[in-house]
Amino acid sequence: MNKIVIVTLLFSALSFGQSAHEEIEKPIRDLFLAMKNADSGLLKSSLTETAVLQTITKDGAVKNEDIKDFISSISKAVKGDLDERITIESIQVDGNLASVFTPYQFYYKGKFSHCGANSFQLVQQNKVWKIQYIIDTRRKENCHEQ
After folding, report:
1. How many domains does the chain have?
2. Does the residue 144 lie in any domain?
3. Quick one: signal sequence residues (predicted)?
4. Of 80, 75, 143, 78, whose CA–CA distance to 112 is shortest?
5. How confident is the model at residue 4 (pLDDT cuts 50, 70, 90)?
6. Which of 68, 66, 78 is CA-nearest to residue 38?
7. Which of 35, 48, 81, 125 could serve as a FRET partner for 96 with CA atoms 20 to 30 Å apart?
8. What angle do CA 51, 56, 62 make, to 5 degrees?
9. 106 occurs within a structural domain
10. How does DSSP classify residue 110?
């Protein structure tokens, strides 16, 4: 009987962990779905009001990108043209803060464009996870197309 209780508790803990990670992943997956579908409303819903977007250039400089310009460019895209394929490699959580690392391959109009990695910082606000900060790398070499 005790074995059944222990197995049930372990399964419940694992299920809770997976569910928590799915909630953290949701705004990230929504961001890329919004890009693919040119859906600025879904994109906005995945971000906090003060979200920050940056990229690291080839020479190592950090370039700030205007989040409003990013949202505007997504809304002007043709549905299906922007396809960023990610792999969620790690998720770290402490209270209302989560850090997610996602290598990616980016396709434009069905053709491979570049690859790199995204680092997301998310915050939980009113029991909902939102993206606060994104920084990425972009390169054309040493990419493994999916």
Report:
1. 1
2. no
3. 1-20
4. 143
5. low
6. 78
7. 35
8. 70
9. yes
10. T
Identify the residue whose tokens are 């070499």.
141
What values do phi and psi take at 77, rounded to 5? -70, 160
Phi, psi at residue 128, to the nearest 5°? Answer: -125, 130
Query: Among candidates 59, 37, 57, which has minimal Cα distance to 46?
Result: 37
- pLDDT band at 143; cut points 50, 70, 90: confident
The pLDDT mean for the chain works out to 89
Contacts of 101 (CB under 8 A, 6+ apart): 88, 89, 90, 117, 118, 119, 120
Among residues 31, 135, 134, 34, the alpha carbon closest in space to that of 77 is found at: 34
Domain that holds residue 85: 2-137
Q: Would you say 131 and 45 are in contact if contact means Cβ atoms under 8 Å apart?
A: no
Q: At 59, phi and psi to the nearest 5?
A: -90, 5
Note whether residue 143 is domain-resident: no
Q: Express each pLDDT in 70-107 by its tens digit.
A: 999 999 999 999 999 999 999 999 999 999 999 999 99
13-22 pLDDT, tens digit per residue, is 444 455 889 9
Tokens in use for 132?
């606060």
